[in-house]
Amino acid sequence: MEITAVRRSRRITARQQDPAPRGVSLLELVFVILITILMAAMAVPLVDNALGLYRLRSAVSSVTGAIQTTRYQAISDGIPYQVVFNAAANTFQVQNDPNFTGVFANVGNAVPLASSSIPVVLGTSTTLRFRPSGIVTASVGSTTLTLTYGGKTETITVSSYGNVKVTP
Known about the structure:
The protein is α+β, with helices and mostly antiparallel strands. It has a single domain, classed as minor pseudopilin epsh fold, CATH 3.55.40. The protein is 40% helix and 27% strand. The longest helix has 52 residues, at 26-77. The protein starts with a helix and ends with a strand.
């Protein structure tokens, strides 16, 4: 009988000294979830702001690229070209005048300024005309374009010799 009593006491002391591993408590789990939700709530406005800036800069890059490419095309082909920026449709269209008659025909299709559900807004409709000599004039509007998205505005200024300057 003494042997069984000793075995029982050894089991009891073994349980007290080396408890079985337990999981996390519900309170700890709730705290981890709350901290995660707080961090996510702080990150959402930062990500939204970064995406808005990305969309605006993407549209600015598209517009400046269209201006520079059209100018180079006019110089290369030796014929007048123009880019028509339509504020109502938020698009631009490249056109050329291969017969030097003053009547421009579309080259390709109109291109949207941005492909987003909330579009980048063009300030005013503008037409930039490019001569084969490289000189740029505005036949409609001015040589300054403004693009706005989410309260941020970028201004694109084109000099008479085709230099493009972007200012925030």
